[in-house]
Every structure is written in structure tokens, then in C-alpha cells.
Specification:
The complex is a heterodimer of chains A (about 325) and B (about 280). Chain A is α/β, with parallel strands linked by helices and about 325 residues long. Chain A has 2 domains: about 220 residues, P-loop containing nucleotide triphosphate hydrolases (Rossmann fold, 3-Layer(aba) Sandwich); about 60 residues, 2-Layer Sandwich (Alpha-Beta Plaits). Chain A is built from 11 helices and 14 strands. Chain A has a 6-stranded mixed sheet, sandwiched between helices. Chain A has a 4-stranded antiparallel sheet with strand order 2-1-4-5, covered by helices on one side. Chain A has a 4-stranded antiparallel sheet with strand order 12-13-11-14, covered by helices on one side. In chain A, helix 3 packs across helix 4 and helix 3 runs parallel beside helix 5. The longest helix of chain A is centred in the middle third of the chain and has 16 residues. Chain A is elongated and about 75 Å long. Chain B has about 280 residues and is mostly helical. Chain B has 12 helices and no strands. The chains are: A alpha/beta (about 325), B mainly alpha (about 280). At the A-B interface, helix 2, strand 6, helix 3 and helix 6 of A face helix 1 and helix 5 of B. Chain B: Belongs to the ABC-2 integral membrane protein family. Chain B: Its main location: membrane. Chain B: This is Transport permease protein. Chain B: It is a multi-pass membrane protein.
Chain lengths: ~325, ~280
């Protein structure tokens, strides 16, 4: 067993009746790293997480969490991980502190430990003032934070977060990201599902893109952007009268230049950093003054569109059998 | 994050996760359910205000129009019926609590913890029994106020209370089945009202079955609730034995109450567990 991997998915398949919700999903998450499981609604993210957290039995394949097999030793898996589900699953009629007590007690922690850990978590998630209030009165952001705090009562080494920031306002989202960064700095392994490319880009070391139940790409955010292959070189000249000369030089270097006259900007498809060096050398000492020279990488949004043919925030649709996009493994 | 090398991470203290018993887990969930009742005392309406209203309504409004053969009068006779109805509604409480927990993802959260999933159901059952117990106490006190008395021996009286709790236990399984099948609390309300009310009224709970037409009488007397109601009435000394022409269950009400609860449990419990497992394993 790969003990340096905190999470392993091995050929996970889940079929609901005629529908193949998850089809042969495999990946590994190294200890202490963050994997982003990225995909639109209905792509199979939640089902994958449910299989990895023992909530749903895989039709085929298996998963290992902290070295424990979800089928052979589900109890050990449950002792090693925390799960924050898609909807904030805290008890609305309990106070924040009582929610922490409930889960701590079910984990078998003694009362003193629960009290100590609870106060630490409430402090860390800025919930101390609200701790004695019934959760029904909490805002969406507070619920999410409490939900995460509850998942951390037993300080599990592996944490699964299913769309942790869905429905949060931008500020709460950034606050939650900070907390997640801290957790990872403390050595926690994180698997998070998200529909937000920005979130995957911000948090994940590694991204698995899933669409219609299958993995369509896997790599670091940078690799995914590179694989999309549409990086552009952008040159902005200082004076409009230099533009024509500049275009000539870029074309002279063998690049296909597009000109945006009002912006005094030339855009050209580029392979990578060496194109920048080449162009920089051409302009160096040419007398053409340059405002800006850079490589514009595609955003993960572009990557997603490129891989799936639809945007990340669109639903995958129900036609799972109709696989038009071919898998593009871009693992380096 | 990737630039943080594993060696520079500070180790954090992970508290020890002890193995806990099913009992500890169930009691924890039970205590959580009790907090719910504390926060929403209106959850107890069905075992407090509602049966008291029924007692008053039937004792003083309809009671005059219902003739019973019991020598001690309608009010005394009525109480066993209201008790039977209230305890049958124990299934309601279980179903609503369970559906709400499944619907809100609480059950999923519990199942992601290192606990026996049965604790969710055992904890729910414990709160249901508590709920029913409160109802039995409230109704006994209300009964005493309107003139109900226990006229049998202490042992018989206790046996009657025992039968009520046994019945409540069987109803828990019905509640688990309905709670696991329904998608929302509103659906549970709909199903339970349209089944439990006719079921409890089509019995000897409020009016004697002797006065019903032959078909209706057969249905009422074979209704499991009637055996329970007849049993507690006899054990409390609130009525004499059923007339000779009554159907078999009323001739041997205690035996039939036990048989009914065993049969209901034997049929419903495995089904309820299966439906619960299927629903939560999705």
C-alpha cells in the first residue's frame, strides 16, 4: 500500500440503476497536499467523495484513506478522516458548542478534551461569541465555519470537503481559504470538490477534472493551463507610431501577430517562456519602447471550456452515455 | 502550499479517539434529541395538549351520545382508548425525527464517524420511548382529574402500562420505515395523518365496536389497536370482558396485543432496516 499517499482512489465505479455516475476514477493524494476535484454539477464529484468516505459502497473499485481500505476496514477510515458535506450538516437546534460536543462525544473523546478542542476551534473560526447561540441564528458563512470546525474536533489527518464555499459571499470564501491554508500547513491532507476554478487554483496542489463521471484531466494548475496550449505573448508598445514596426519584428520572429491598435498591443500565440526571451532580445536596442511584455496563460476557466466544451458552472446534463470529449491525460 | 516542505510543518496534537460502545453512542444521540425537545417544546404537543383535548372533547362533548356497557361510565372507558391512540402515534414522532435528520444530512455526518450506524436508530428509539412515557404520564393525570380510576390490582395496572410501552416499541419500527421512505417532513405528516387517524378511529378506542355494523365491527375488532385498548381497559378494571359475540382478538386482548406487537415487529423491523440502509447508503 502506498503509505505516502493519504488518499487513493482505485478504479472507482458507481452505478445507480442505468446511470453510470462515476466511471473508473483513480488518483492519489500525497500526504499533506491538497487535491481539487473539479467539475460541474452532476459530474460525479459528490458520489466520488461519498465512496471515499464510506457513505456509499462502490459498484467496483475501492479507495484507501490513510492506508485503510474503505471496503475492508471502513471503521479505520472513519477514524482517520473528517467530512464536511455539501450542505452544512450542523444541527440547527443545537448551539455551536453543543454541535462540537455531539461530534466529539461520538468520536469517543473525553469531556475535558472536547472542551479544550472546542474552545480552540471556536477561537480559530471566530465563533467564540456565537458559541452559545442556537445554530439556526447563524449566517451561512458561520454555519460553514462551524461545519468545518465540527469536522476537525478529532483533528483527523485527512479531510474531505464537498464544495466547502458554495453559497458563501466572497469575503467568507477568502476567510475559509485562509483557514484551509492553515490546516494544510499543519500537515492535514485535503481533498476538496469545487465548481470554482479560482478556488481549485488558489488551494490545490493537484487538480483532477471530472466530467460526466470520468477523469478528463489531471495535473497541477500550471500543467493544466500549459496543456491547454494557448498561452499568448502580449507586447504593449509605449508609442502608437512604433506599433507597425513592432508588429513587423514579431512577425519576423516567426510568430503570428494580432494587433489591437487602440490598446497599442500585439498578441501572439506562444509556446512558453523562451518566446518571451526571444522577443525581448529582438526589441532590446531596437529603439522601440515597450510598456509591457508578458506571457498570458489561459485561466482554468479556459482550460475547462477547452477540455469539456462547456463552462464549469453549467450542469453536466444527464446524457452520461454520450461521451463526446475524449480523455486527455496531461499528467507530467 | 506546495512550497512548504513536510519537515517544516509543525506537528499538531491529535487527540486520542477511543473506542466507544453502542450504548455510549446511542445515549449521546439520545441526549442530542432531548436538547431538541428542550429547544422546541412544541414537539411535545402530540403527547400533551392533543390527548388532553381529545379526553375533554370525548368526555364532555361526544361522551353523552356514546353508550357503553361499562358499569363505570364512558369517561373511565374512554381513557384506555386515548392511551392507545396516543401510543400509536409514537411512530409519527420517530418518522418525523428520522426524515428530518436524513434530509438535513445529519445522518450522513453521523455515518462518517467511527460509530455503529445502529446508534442513530437506537438513540431515536430512546427519545421516542421518552416521548411516549411523557404522554402516558400526562394522560394518566388528566384521566385522574376527569374521574378515571385504576380498579384492578397494582400488578395488572403495571401490566397495562407495560403493554402500552411494548406497543410503543413496535410503533418505532413503523416510524423508522416511514421515516426512511419519505423525502420530507411534510410527506411524513401527510402519510401519517391519512393512515394513523382512520386506523385509530376504526377501532374500539372512542366508541364500542359492538354498536358497529357487522363488516365495520370485524375490521375494528381485528384492528391491532383494539386489542391493546381492550387489554388496558380490562387490566385497569375500566370494563368487563368483551361480549361473547366479539371477534377473537377482543376475547383474548392481552395475548393478542403481544402477538400483534411481535408480528408487526417481525414484519416491519427487517423491512425498516433495509429501507434505512438503502436510503442512507445512496
Amino acid at each position: 500500500m502506498g503509505h505516502d499517499h493519504a488518499i487513493e482512489a482505485v478504479g472507482l465505479v458507481k452505478r445507480f440503476g442505468d446511470t453510470l455516475a462515476v466511471d473508473d476514477v483513480s488518483f492519489e493524494v500525497p500526504r499533506g497536499s491538497v487535491l481539487g476535484l473539479l467539475g460541474p454539477n452532476g459530474a460525479g464529484k459528490t458520489t466520488t467523495v461519498r465512496m471515499m468516505t464510506t457513505l456509499t459502497r462502490p459498484t467496483r473499485g475501492t479507495a484507501r484513506v490513510a492506508g485503510h481500505d474503505v471496503l475492508e476496514d471502513p471503521a479505520a477510515v472513519r477514524r482517520s478522516m473528517g467530512l464536511t458535506g455539501q450542505s452544512a450538516t450542523v444541527d440547527e437546534l443545537l448551539t455551536g458548542r453543543e454541535n462540537l460536543w455531539l461530534i466529539g462525544s461520538l468520536y469517543g473523546l473525553d469531556r475535558r478534551t472536547i472542551d479544550r478542542v472546542s474552545e480552540e476551534l471556536l477561537e480559530r473560526f471566530s465563533l467564540t461569541d456565537a458559541a452559545g447561540r442556537v445554530v439556526k441564528t447563524y449566517s451561512g458563512g458561520m454555519r460553514r465555519r462551524l461545519d468545518l470546525a465540527v469536522s476537525l474536533v478529532a483533528t483527523p489527518p485527512v479531510l474531505f470537503l464537498d464544495e466547502p464555499t458554495t453559497g458563501l459571499d466572497p469575503r467568507s470564501r477568502v476567510e475559509l481559504w485562509d483557514v484551509l491554508h492553515d490546516l494544510v500547513d499543519d500537515g492535514t491532507t485535503l481533498l476538496l470538490t469545487t465548481q470554482y476554478l479560482e478556488e481549485a487554483d488558489q488551494l490545490a496542489d493537484d487538480i483532477v477534472v471530472i466530467d460526466r463521471g470520468t477523469i478528463i484531466a489531471h495535473g497541477t494548475p500550471m500543467q493544466l493551463k500549459d496543456a491547454s496550449g494557448k498561452a499568448s505573448l502580449v507586447v504593449t508598445v509605449s508609442r502608437a507610431e512604433d506599433l507597425a514596426a513592432a508588429v513587423e519584428r514579431v512577425r519576423g520572429a516567426g510568430l503570428e501577430a494580432h494587433v489591437d491598435e487602440p490598446a497599442r498591443r500585439i498578441t501572439a500565440p506562444a509556446e512558453g517562456l523562451h518566446d518571451i526571451t526571444r522577443i525581448a532580445a529582438i526589441f532590446d536596442g531596437s529603439g522601440i519602447e515597450i510598456d509591457d511584455l508578458g506571457l498570458q496563460r489561459p485561466s482554468l476557466d479556459d482550460v475547462f471550456l477547452n477540455l469539456t466544451g462547456h463552462r464549469a458552472d453549467e450542469d453536466a446534463g444527464a446524457d452520461i452515455e454520450d461521451q463526446s470529449s475524449s480523455p486527455a491525460e496531461v499528467r507530467a | 502550499m506546495s512550497q512548504t516542505s513536510p519537515t517544516t510543518r509543525r506537528a499538531i496534537e491529535r487527540p486520542e479517539i477511543r473506542h466507544t460502545s453502542l450504548w455510549h453512542q446511542s445515549v449521546t444521540i439520545f441526549r442530542r434529541n432531548l436538547i431538541h425537545i428542550k429547544r422546541m417544546p412544541e414537539m411535545l404537543l402530540d403527547v400533551t395538549i392533543q390527548p388532553v383535548m381529545f379526553v375533554l372533547l370525548f368526555a364532555y362533548v361526544f361522551g353523552g351520545a356514546i353508550a357503553v356497557a361499562a358499569p363505570t361510565g364512558y369517561r373511565e372507558w374512554l381513557l384506555g382508548g386515548i392511551m392507545g391512540q396516543t401510543i400509536a402515534f409514537a411512530s409519527f414522532v420517530v418518522a418525523i425525527g428520522l426524515t428530518a435528520d436524513i434530509d438535513k444530512g445529519i445522518v450522513d455526518r453521523f455515518r462518517s464517524l467511527p460509530i455503529n450506524p445502529a446508534a442513530i436508530l437506537v438513540g431515536r428509539s430512546m427519545s421516542s420511548i421518552t416521548h411516549s412515557f411523557i404522554g402516558i404520564v400526562v394522560m394518566s393525570l388528566t384521566g385522574l382529574i376527569v374521574g378515571w380510576r385504576i380498579r384492578g390490582s397494582v400488578l395488572d395496572a403495571l401490566a397495562a402500562y407495560g403493554l402500552l410501552l411494548l406497543w410503543g416499541f413496535a410503533m418505532i419500527w413503523v416510524g423508522i420505515l416511514v421515516g426512511s421512505s419519505m423525502r420530507s417532513v411534510e410527506a411524513v405528516n401527510g402519510v401519517m395523518f391519512t393512515t394513523m387517524f382512520p386506523l385509530t378511529f376504526l377501532s374500539n378506542a372512542f366508541a364500542p365496536s359492538e354498536a358497529m355494523g357487522p363488516v365495520l365491527r370485524a375490521i375494528a375488532e381485528w384492528n391491532p389497536i383494539s386489542a391493546l385498548v381492550q387489554a388496558v381497559r380490562e387490566l385497569w378494571g375500566n370494563t368487563g370482558p368483551a361480549p361473547a359475540d366479539a371477534h377473537l382478538p377482543l376475547q383474548h386482548p392481552v395475548l393478542f396485543t403481544v402477538l400483534w406487537t411481535v408480528a408487526i415487529t417481525a414484519v416491519v423491523a427487517p423491512l425498516a432496516l433495509k429501507v434505512f440502509r438503502n436510503r442512507t447508503m445512496q
